[in-house]
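User: Fold this; tokens only.

Assistant: Input:
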Amino acid sequence: MINGVRSEIVEIFSDVFEYPEPLNQETSQEDIPKWDSLQHIALVSAIEQCFAITLTMDEMMEIRCVRDVHVVLERHGI
């Protein structure tokens, strides 16, 4: 974990958003300029591929910050 964030999530955010800054649990859409609706779809896809899960539409919409990604992963037992 880096700043309380799983390394896989750090890598996903770096790849999807080209976000070089350190992430923390509160890093959100407001902090990441490239986090728009299209990149949100790319984020969801990267999470699903990395962790071999399928997110529901509600889970996709629930993700608004790094903490939300952790909550969704915990719900899937990851």
